[in-house]
Write a structure and sequence with these properties.
The complex is a heterodimer of chains A (about 260) and B (about 270). Chain A is built from eleven helices and no strands. By secondary structure, chain A is mainly α. Chain A has one domain (about 50-260): MetI-like fold. Chain B is mainly α. Chain B folds into two domains: about 1-40, no CATH class; about 50-265, MetI-like fold, CATH 1.10.3720.10. In chain B, about 80% of the residues lie in helices and about 0% in strands. Chain B is built from eleven helices and no strands. The two termini of chain B are about 45 Å apart. The chains are: A mainly alpha (about 260), B mainly alpha (about 270). Chains A and B meet through helix 1, helix 4, helix 5, helix 8 and helix 9 of A and helix 1, helix 5, helix 6, helix 9 and helix 10 of B.
Chain lengths: ~260, ~270
């Protein structure tokens, strides 16, 4: 019971500054009579939010964006973990390939937008490709590093105890690389999310980025600000409620390998 | 399998003698593969030009002076934005890290604004400042600022309280504690923040140049896309990749390593 009260108080302490910020915003807009075409008031943003919920445009755009992220990320993870493990097993090969993957993980995401739109046309394909690519190179590179960072004695020990290839993979390589893999997914998704918003502004007709950019054409700042808040909240939820706890749990559970 | 192993062992021996090779040689097979796929015309030429076409377009764009100018534009924008982001971010981070009250008041706000992300600001910035340099500078400063602030806060808070007390009991004033205990202790985190921030800022710059589009490497690529010239898009990607590879690998990573070696003891 006391724990619930304490977490409730922590939540209030976290939210209080944000509430103050909103009040300040309302007061400033009221006091200086800011032109709504420059910056909207709190109420008009709330109204824009309600409207977009009522006519179904917000759920539609958000669902489109999230579907793209989910499909691109899932595909990338499915391919990149086996690939990264396979490449990381031999130190010579992983040393050879590491610079390559660093180069491509540096390029990943936004820089692929022009060529993705040319190859796949505007729409779902190009945007999912941009996300796939941001996650793919990040996760592959990190998996490679993770497997390569497992101390050789551990692998020798497992082998001399009679571990077959399969047991080695499941019980040594994958758990040892897991902290790196999860970190890779988190940073990759961070880049992918930004890439998604940018790509949607350029190359589609549905999605949160498109919603913002469309509103700009009509100087509807209340829709823009509302969209920004939605983008911020979605990412906060994704990162803080899903990825960060996952990363922490993985490092606590399997992180010993790196410390050894 | 045997010749492959032999080649690999030769490679290992060579890279030990000349470490530079390790960051060059891996690209050779990729370039060869690219050239073969392009020459075999598996995809139409306009879809996937070969490396030689890209080198030739590099030559012609350098000769016309377009590429150097755009590259300079991008790099100057990034450098100015990063400098401003750091100049704002470190003091703010120290403030939020040092004062419990500032931390309570500002931390949630920082987290929220960081989550909104740079590029989501573009539409409203375009309304405020129009298509131009101000918009782009704002986006880069914004992007660099948050990783620097958040990491500085982490760094400042990771300095053990014992060190504070020791300095204090030896008679250090508050500014001296700041200069000689807190800042050095936080430096490794600050450099990490700078590196992350530049990584994000650089991507944001490309996106902003594509959307705002007046000059710069991002603009070059997007303009080429409009004209359907895949060669120039690929050239832009290669230039960007190389540039960041050099900046990150030869400047930021060594800087980070040196800082951690020199001042990183505090964290442990």
């Amino acid at each position: 019971m006391t724990r619930q009260i304490r977490s409730l108080r922590a939540a209030i302490a976290f939210l209080a500054p944000l509430v103050v910020l909103v009040l300040l915003w309302a007061a400033v807009v009221q006091a200086f009579e800011v032109d709504p075409r420059i910056f909207p008031g709190v109420l008009s943003v709330a109204r824009a939010g309600l409207d977009s919920l009522r006519d179904g445009s917000l759920p539609m755009h958000a669902a489109a964006s999230l579907t793209r992220v989910a499909v691109g990320t899932a595909l990338a993870i499915l391919i990149s973990i086996p690939l990264g493990v396979a490449m990381g097993v031999s130190p010579a090969i992983s040393n050879f390939l590491a610079p390559l993957f660093r180069f491509f993980s540096v390029l990943a995401g936004i820089a692929w937008i022009p060529i993705a739109t040319l190859w796949f046309g505007y729409g779902f394909g190009a945007i999912t490709f941009v996300i796939f690519n941001a996650v793919f190179f990040g996760v592959t590179y990190n998996t490679l590093l993770g497997v390569a960072s497992i101390p050789m004695p551990l692998r020798h020990a497992a082998a001399s105890l009679g571990a077959g290839k399969w047991a080695m993979l499941i019980e040594v390589l994958l758990p040892g690389a897991l902290p790196n893999i999860v970190t890779g997914i988190r940073t990759g998704l961070g880049f992918a999310w930004r890439g998604l918003i940018a790509a949607e502004m350029i190359a589609t007709n549905v999605g949160l980025g498109y919603m913002l950019f469309l509103a700009r054409d009509f100087y509807r700042t209340e829709v823009i600000v509302f969209g920004m808040i939605v983008i911020g909240l979605l990412w906060l939820a994704l990162d803080r409620l899903l990825l960060a706890p996952l990363e922490r749990a993985t490092i606590e559970r399997w992180g010993m390998v790196r410390a050894a | 399998m045997n010749p492959l192993l032999k080649a690999l062992s030769l490679y290992v021996r060579w890279t030990r003698r000349w470490p530079v090779l390790a960051s060059v040689l891996p690209f050779v097979p990729v370039l060869l593969l690219w050239a073969i796929v392009a020459e075999a015309r598996i995809f139409p030429r306009a879809f996937l030009p070969g490396p030689i076409d890209v080198v030739m377009s590099f030559g012609s764009l350098v000769y016309k002076g377009i590429l150097p100018e755009y590259l300079e534009d991008s790099v100057v924008r990034l450098a100015l934005g990063a400098a401003a982001g750091v100049a704002l971010g470190i003091p703010l981070g120290v403030l939020v890290g040092m004062s419990a009250r500032a931390h309570r008041a500002l931390w949630p706000i920082l987290l929220f604004f960081q989550a909104i992300g740079d590029i989501a600001w573009l539409p409203i910035l375009l309304i405020w400042f129009g298509f131009g340099l101000t918009t782009m500078t704002f986006v880069i400063v914004y992007t660099v600022l948050f990783p620097v602030v958040l990491n500085t806060v982490l760094g400042v808070r990771s300095v053990p309280i014992v060190l504070h007390r020791a300095a204090q009991s030896l008679g250090a004033s508050r500014p001296r504690i700041l200069l000689e205990v807190v800042l050095p202790g936080a430096l490794p985190n600050i450099v990490t923040g700078l590196r992350n921030g530049l990584g994000y800022g650089w991507r944001a710059l490309i996106a902003a140049e594509m959307i705002v589009g007046t000059s710069g490497v991002g603009f070059l690529m997007f303009d080429a896309r409009r004209a359907g010239s895949v060669v120039e898009i690929l050239l832009g990607m290669v230039v960007l990749g190389l540039l960041w590879y050099v900046v990150d690998g030869w400047m930021l990573v060594p800087l980070e390593k040196k800082t951690v070696e020199r001042w990183g003891l505090v964290a442990r």
